[in-house]
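Batch job 17 of 40 flagged for manual review because the log was empty.
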Amino acid sequence: MIDKVFLVANQPNNNRAPNPPLGYSRECDLSEAKQIRLVAEFHANRIRPSRIAYRLGIDIALIDALLAGEYQASFFTEQLAAAQRRRRDLRMRSSERLRGQAAYEIRVKAQRDYDASLSQP
C-alpha cells in the first residue's frame, strides 16, 4: 500500500480552495504525529472535521483521509481508541462527585457511549 503525503502548509500553485478559507486559516506548526493525535481526540469528542480544521489549522484533506482510514490507519485507530477510553474514564471520574441515581445514570451513559463507539466501523 502506498502512503499518501499530505502537506499542511498552503501552497501557492494549489488550485484547491483551502478549508478554512483564507483569512480564517491558521498555520499548523505541529508534527504529523501530534496532528493525528489531536484529530483522534477531537473525533472522539464528536467534533466535526471542518471544525477541527478551523480550530487547529490542519488540512481538511488530511482529516478526511484519517477518518476514512486511507492514511496512517493503524496509528489513527490506536490514538482514537485511547482518546475514547480517556473520555469514558473522565466521565466516570466526574460521576464520583455525584451520589445516587444521577451518578449511576452518568456512568451508564458513559459506558453506553463508549460501547457504541467501539461498535462503529
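Reviewer: the log was empty due to a logging misconfiguration, but the result itself is present. The mean pLDDT is 79. Unflagging and moving on to job 18.
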